[in-house]
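Posting for a labmate who doesn't have an account.
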Amino acid sequence: MGKEITGHTGLLCLLGSPVAHSISPAMHNEACKQLGLDYAYLAFDVPEEKMPQAVEGLRTMGARGWNITMPGKNIMCKLADKLSPASEISGACNTIVNEDGVLTAYTTDGVGFMRAVKDKGVDIIGKKMTLLGAGGAATAILVQAALDGVAEIQVFNIKDAFWERAQDIVNQLNERTACKVTLHDYEDPEVLRAAIADSAILVNGTSVGMAPKTDATIITDTTMFQPDLFVFDVIYNPKETRLLREAKAAGCKTSNGMYMLLYQGAASFELWTGQEMPVDIIKEKYFS
């Protein structure tokens, strides 16, 4: 049993649907316990259309902050009073900090990604990236990488529901950052091959290869892998996707999305508490 809950205990929470499977409550409550912080972190199943009422309730009750998972990341941005640069550009957020009723939106998914890459001993600042996908996770990575100083990012996506939004974000990043960003359709594999050949890192930001369809991979031609390429897959179920398995066989350094999840949580935790999450303890307990 952790710290006893009293009349002073502050509320942190997760909003979204579904949320019952989330590791966030375990991770944040353990971190609070380790640091002796008087907060309790709970998960609330809130569908998108009920998000405005939930947020007004939390604001009124003085909750210190919350995370937002799917499907509420975009609507939460509209409900916040202030937006971080990354949230403003992406139109999404996963973290809210409540300062006396003023809600500031942040997105820590991209921060988590950048820290997970650094954790592997890979430096991508000033280098080139190939990014597959333009959905939520991919967009968070794209925006943070551009803000942090990755030199060039080539984004590949099918012409789906995300295409126009992706083009808008790419335009904003080209205007607002020093990063050169281009959006491509998947139609020509040689364009993809050329991008990968020139990149320090290849990121799969799509759900291709996720359980239960673990035999799927987004790169079907394994000759595109070169040994000095770092291949990062946001998927962590399975722990090693077919993409990562085949990249490793080609001599690439690889990483799944597990530590991205850890570090996005750590970044949120620091925004709420002003203290660093004891990541080594959390890593060992929940991510080993």
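Reply:
Got it, the structure tokens are right above this. The chain has a mean pLDDT of 96.
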